């Protein structure tokens, strides 16, 4: 006798069953994947979604995150895709934004010195000097995403580095970095999310490849980890400023 989806869901939550309902799916030994062979239509889609949510974690743990074959239950991998760039950072308050922008202005007024940002939770995170041997005054190089009246030391690479330094707990998704990047007072208004994402992606890759990288990427959890949070100012002298300037000028 077959088991309905609702009955099976209740049994699964109680720990009585690990396999999907026999009437709805079968298991392909060749492709190591489940196939939906139940009824089709709007009701079936809703039923399949409930099963997907209930079985996802157990399915992955039992079958090692198998890749479905042709006609396989590809939806079982949707939760993984949705987590790759998921935004986990809660929105900050107006007071927090104003406090950060004051610190940011002070940071770029002394570009050749290391800086310590105060994060939303009150903790602190160090960030390296910009690495450009120039004064804090003068004309900045034109860039279509940056305000022309900004300090000359402000580059997209530097802004993304600062955003990574401000990740809560020193880690977060690329979407989290993008959200923190958008808080900078030096970006022009009206920048869309696609442009921000492209900038963050390229800059994070560059920062990861530096001689003294400040970030690393953990592929299993899909997060960027900031590495310099606990450094002292003297710790940033290992990489010559000329080398930093060359890298920073790329963006």
UniProtKB/TrEMBL annotation:
<dbReference type="InterPro" id="IPR024867">
    <property type="entry name" value="NFRKB"/>
</dbReference>
<feature type="domain" description="Nuclear factor related to kappa-B-binding protein second winged helix">
    <location>
        <begin position="98"/>
        <end position="233"/>
    </location>
</feature>
<feature type="region of interest" description="Disordered">
    <location>
        <begin position="1"/>
        <end position="26"/>
    </location>
</feature>
<dbReference type="Pfam" id="PF25793">
    <property type="entry name" value="WHD_2nd_NFRKB"/>
</dbReference>
<dbReference type="GO" id="GO:0031011">
    <property type="term" value="C:Ino80 complex"/>
</dbReference>
<protein>
    <recommendedName>
        <fullName>Nuclear factor related to kappa-B-binding protein second winged helix domain-containing protein</fullName>
    </recommendedName>
</protein>
<dbReference type="InterPro" id="IPR057748">
    <property type="entry name" value="NFRKB_WH_2"/>
</dbReference>
<feature type="compositionally biased region" description="Basic and acidic residues">
    <location>
        <begin position="1"/>
        <end position="10"/>
    </location>
</feature>
